[in-house]
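Hello Y.,

Per our agreement to keep a running log of every chain we model this quarter, I'm adding this entry. I've kept the format consistent with earlier entries: sequence first, then predicted structure.
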Amino acid sequence: MSLIDNERLLCRIRQIHADSQGILDAAHVHEDLVDEGKTAGKNRSARLMAAAGLQKKERGQCDKPALLPPMALNLLERDFNAMEPEVKWVTDITEIKTWEDKLYLCVIIDLFSKLVIGWSAHHRQDRQMVIRAIERVANNMISSSQPF
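Predicted structure for the entry above:
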């Protein structure tokens, strides 16, 4: 593999590691890469993580942010009424226990219709799961606005 490929892959590995707040090991990062269609092997992922100093934090070591990040501010200010569709959306993530493991379900609800307009599910709760739900909504909006 070329140096550029490794740099791109390491950039994505850093994002996945940061999204998990450092609790994912190389095997789980590799699993996410495979889910995204990347063709990196477990050993390559582990080697790149080690070279970058990315290690799994032990249980209880996760840093809790003192303040909410800007994207988590309460922009609705508890006003859950919408006068028209596609103006106010909310999202929720629910943990579902299955026979095998946990499943996380992220739903996006339009506050005008109170209907689920997008969703995504994954075995791990992360930022990508929310992004996939939003992409699903955007794709549905684009396809429904296309003339036949």
